[in-house]
């Protein structure tokens, strides 16, 4: 009897042990990670951000069931350097990737370890769908930078439609490629990027995967599907592109749900920089893409992870796209002690209240002749050959009142912090054109002077003035 009981007890214990192993395996497999990046999306131009002009039910759902960051930033206000920061988790000024559109043979420093590589090391299958924009050379190609699969374009923008006489001409870096081979496609590019993502999820259900879903929408050329504009009752192509992107995010979410993967998938959503163009809205922020006001680099920013991230809440401390690397790699079980130190941090313990303090006391931006920094709610902008602007975002989020003359001691204090940050950064590896440089100087000056966005007509006037005074030299034949 005694023996029988002991055997029963041992059997019971073994059973418990086995079931707990099964349970922990079942309950805690490595989470899938998807970064959804919009391109040039206006701060207000989503349903959950308050837009009345466009419908984005699927992004809104991520916001409702995940966490919304109200002070979430990217590390640059233009495409390429912003993506360099996102992919490396490090301020891109550490490796000279400051200017936009790296001219051949430049690209993101090959000594940098990208997030795809870090996820591969944790046993993930990795893929990038859509826009790359981190260099056109083979050594910069996504499949040489940590992605098992790439379907998209090397360059920064292209038509949403296939045209073999233009973007899709042989050898064009705007052409769509699948693992190095140029491919044809039918229909709208946003739909194709969505379809590729769905296909990848379907074929990787059994293993952890990491997807960098890098839409070209709503970046120009503004070519929406007519049906998408109709669906939201508009003739505005920019809004149609946003709706089409959301519809494809819906396809991705539905695929995850159908395969019971949604619960164990981390989804990030953000834009690579602020809005620009004829009809964007960055309300209530000042400035736009390309400039150092909040509308350039504060972006819609969401983190969804069921049961790990508080649902339907907002987090108001500063976070930055650099944190996505650290947070995702930590969630995948990787170490954050990297040979090249990360600037981003794992934000999960902060947002869950497990860790006191804030992820970042300060954030910094620099592109060529313009720089900015945040120290809590203080914002400093520095423009070479002009000077400084100082804003208190606590009561002036639109950056309307420059306090630099009223508070010179604050300017000195923040300038010292900015210069300290610059000490271990390197010189930019390439510049942008003189026209863009002139526009940056004039725009910042005017915006600081009048305390509001001088608008598209002002930018056009500045551009015209520049072209008048700098007639293009005729190309030698
Ligand atoms: Ca962009």
What would you note in describing this structure?
There is one protein chain. The chain is an alpha/beta fold and 477 residues long. It has 2 domains: 29-351, Alkaline Phosphatase, subunit A (3-Layer(aba) Sandwich); 362-469, 2-Layer Sandwich (Arylsulfatase, C-terminal domain), CATH 3.30.1120. Helices cover 33% and strands 16% of the residues. Strands 7-6-5-4-8-1-9-10-2-11 form a 10-stranded mixed beta sheet, sandwiched between helices. Strands 13-14-15-16 form a 4-stranded antiparallel beta sheet, sandwiched between helices. A two-stranded parallel ribbon has the order 3-12. Helix 3 runs parallel beside helix 9 (322-331), helix 5 packs parallel to helix 7 (237-258) and helix 12 (434-450) crosses helix 13 (455-469). It is globular. The termini are far apart.
Rounded mean pLDDT is 94
The kinds of small molecule bound in this structure are:
calcium ion
Bin the helical content: 25-40%
The radius of gyration over CA amounts to 24 Å
Total discrete domains: 2
CATH topology of the largest domain: the name is Alkaline Phosphatase, subunit A
Number of helices: 13
Sheet-strand content, in percent, reads 15-25%
Structural class: alpha/beta
The level 1 CATH classification of the largest domain is Alpha Beta
Largest sheet: 10 strands, mixed
pLDDT < 50 runs, ≥5 residues: 16-26
For the record, give the distance between the C-alpha atoms at the N and C termini, rounded to a whole number: 103 Å
Overall 3D shape: globular
Name of the CATH homologous superfamily of the largest domain: Alkaline Phosphatase, subunit A
Report strand order across the widest sheet. Answer: 7-6-5-4-8-1-9-10-2-11
Element string (H = helix, E = strand): HEHEEHHEEEEHEHHEHEEEHHEEEEHHH
Strand segment count: 16
